[in-house]
């Protein structure tokens, strides 16, 4: 049956057509404009559009768009990390040079509030899986919320970790509290048992199957009682990030899910879950 293409689907198909033809996803005026158009198209929360009911053509586009956007975000973070890391001064004094800095401040504040609400103690060791070349969440938590916590940033990409460690190496405090591990999270086992909290980056696992594989792996290796902070998406925003449902978190007790409104200043939903006893 021919797709009853809604206005949204027509916009998505057109944007995907342009984005998939880009020769490079590295930051440029054209790349930035297209991904900003994608963001604003998917931002509305007050719609009754059911993404799951969209036709197979648009569903296929959804997965490919998330993959392309993940690559573009990687390049963008790499660019800004290189700029910050090349400053004479301590890069952590100039984080506001990153265009999405205030968005991260708001997202991380919410995640800290959820963490505090569902934790019986201040976390000593936190892992951030998929920390990237701009480990903003770890930096913001360490600088503004958790002064005595150590952050273990796990990323598969050695270049991302090399750029990220350059951001904190000149900071007298964070250089001691930010640790970097270069590994595929699926190869990390024993180490995962040592964390009070594990954050999973929205762009680790860029399709549902890959995301569930990572979640299952974390469930196999996290300590009972440890918290998983997972970034998800709802509605049209599931064209930007993989949407995870509570039933996907086997072996975890889902404690709370926060879906941001248009006024929150960040896009992804946040899910807090506790690893059940073995
Ligand atoms: C582009 S960054 C974006 C992080 C973003 N700030 C967020 O919150 O999603 C995502 C990072 O996840 C890393 N990554 C992807 N798959 C991974 C895996 N299986 N194990 C470890 N790191 C992974 C990538 O190398 C990349 O640096």
TrEMBL record:
Its EC number is 2.5.1.43. It catalyses: 3 S-adenosyl-L-methionine = nicotianamine + 3 S-methyl-5'-thioadenosine + 3 H(+). Gene3D superfamilies: Vaccinia Virus protein VP39. It holds the Pfam family NAS. GO terms for molecular function: nicotianamine synthase activity. It comes from the Eukaryota. SUPFAM superfamilies: S-adenosyl-L-methionine-dependent methyltransferases. GO terms for biological process: nicotianamine biosynthetic process. Keywords: S-adenosyl-L-methionine, Transferase. InterPro entries: Nicotian_synth, SAM-dependent_MTases_sf. Belongs to the nicotianamine synthase (NAS)-like family. Synthesizes nicotianamine, a polyamine which serves as a sensor for the physiological iron status within the plant, and/or might be involved in the transport of iron. PANTHER family: NICOTIANAMINE SYNTHASE 2, NICOTIANAMINE SYNTHASE 3. This is Nicotianamine synthase. The lineage of its organism: Eukaryota, Viridiplantae, Streptophyta, Embryophyta, Tracheophyta.
């Amino acid at each position: 049956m021919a797709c009853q293409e809604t206005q949204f689907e027509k916009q998505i198909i057109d944007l995907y057509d342009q984005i998939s033809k880009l020769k490079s996803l590295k930051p440029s005026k054209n790349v930035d404009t297209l991904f900003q158009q994608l963001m604003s198209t998917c931002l509305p929360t007050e719609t009754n559009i059911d993404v799951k009911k969209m036709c197979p053509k648009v569903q296929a586009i959804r997965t490919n768009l998330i993959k392309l956007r993940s690559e573009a975000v990687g390049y963008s973070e790499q660019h800004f990390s290189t700029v910050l890391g090349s400053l004479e001064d301590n890069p952590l004094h100039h984080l506001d040079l990153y265009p999405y800095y205030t968005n991260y401040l708001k997202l991380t504040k919410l995640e800290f509030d959820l963490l505090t609400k569902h934790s019986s103690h201040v976390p000593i060791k936190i892992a951030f899986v998929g920390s990237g070349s701009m480990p903003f969440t770890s930096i913001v938590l360490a600088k503004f919320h958790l002064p005595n916590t150590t952050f273990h940033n796990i990323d598969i990409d050695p270049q991302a970790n090399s750029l990220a460690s350059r951001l904190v190496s000149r900071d007298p405090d964070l250089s001691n509290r930010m640790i970097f591990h270069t590994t595929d999270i699926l190869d990390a086992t024993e180490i995962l048992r040592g964390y009070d909290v594990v954050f999973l980056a929205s762009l680790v696992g860029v399709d549902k199957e890959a995301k569930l594989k990572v979640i299952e792996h974390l469930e196999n290796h996290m300590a009972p009682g440890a918290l998983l902070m997972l970034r998800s998406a709802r509605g049209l925003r599931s064209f930007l990030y993989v949407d995870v449902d509570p039933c996907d978190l086997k072996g975890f007790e889902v404690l709370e899910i926060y879906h941001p409104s248009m006024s929150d200043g960040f896009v992804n939903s946040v899910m807090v879950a506790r690893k059940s006893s073995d």
